[in-house]
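Quick look at the format.
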Amino acid sequence: MHELPLLLFTLLLQGSVGVTLWLALLRSRAGSVLPGVVLAFVMACIGLLASMLHMGYPLNALNALRHVASSWLSREVVFASLYLAVLGLSGLLMIVRKPGGNLLLPLAALFGVIDVYCMGQIYMHTSVITWQHVNTLFLFYGTAGIVGSVLIALMALKGRWTCLPALAKYAVVVVAIMVLARLLVQPLWFDAIMNASQQIVTLPHAPLVRLQQLHDVYIAAWVVSVVGLFCFAVGGLRKAKGALILGSLLLVIAELILRFVFFSIG
């Protein structure tokens, strides 16, 4: 799949932002959040490397900085760079045991949230009808919330942050909100693209045809997502490790399938 680098970039960077948001909230209540910072930083680095592969020639990434005032792509590059830089500095300060590392996490999280918004706007401002809806933002922010919460819950499962016994339950709440919010916006998305396709004769119809071809795959992704939510909720609320791990795996698989469909219909 020629869009694999973008799939990896968006999933990993958005998941990294989700982890950082959790760390920004945990920093004053938990012990060391350094393992989480390292995880988020590595995810972001791999994602950004994947995005450079998509450009064909990595140095072309510098050209994207020339139109910050008018280009969502330029803004995305700027905020992704700021996010990675602040997150990396935060981790470095923690490693050398200098003050300020925890204080930088909220700033890194803020840059990350803005970066995810810029990502969404890049696709919403294209001519691809299936990307132009607010559903794109729900998809991207949903990934940040779901992947971030899953990873935080798994880290808590391994004994990290034992001073926060309700952490898994909070993660369940976030995942449930993200999955249900996405489900609620689906009818609005389908209605919007169907209405547009009937009203605009010159509309590129290839994305709609591709969406119809992938309809069963798309429905399967949602089934996996809902089942994953159920297992994750059982694991988080009842402290059942097996269910938590299974739910986490299913939720990540669902994210991969949904992102595959997203880029395939573009």
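Next, a different chain entirely:
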Amino acid sequence: MTQVTEWLDVVNEHDEVVGTVTREDAHARGLTVRVINVFLVNQSGQLWVPRRTAHKRLFPGCLDMSVGGHVERGETYEQAFRRETQEELNLNVDDLPWRQIARFGPRDGLSAFMHVYELRRDDPPTFNPDDFSSAEWLTPAELLRRIEQGDPAKGDLNRLVQLCYGVGRA
């Protein structure tokens, strides 16, 4: 299988594009890039929390946001949100209620500049098995408790849930 090179915009401290780089090089050099994260939320206020597959290069087997991904070179945050949601959850965001709930950056204690979206849906999605191995519905407090008790999680997940849902330690 041929791996496609993923090109990303490098941004400065004001989230302004200052160059382009491959995804691998961005991670290796610690450059600031753009990402999107999405929480799928049901009417009970639970988050759909997937577990990453064991073969993922970064954070294998860890709990994750419902959708997460890099904003590719020349792409807007919303375009990345739409693309990644389709790729990871097989969902068209035009078919669901959604909204942007936050914008964050490295100053907020996170790894990148990011826009955070919330999708509303009560049924679990048919997720991409290349991305996730399983998933479950958890309240934000339950998710934070699981992480605190040692369940491995993707780097920004704990902080993002605290910021977006106001639970746990800030």
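The radius of gyration is 15 Å.

See the schema section for token definitions.
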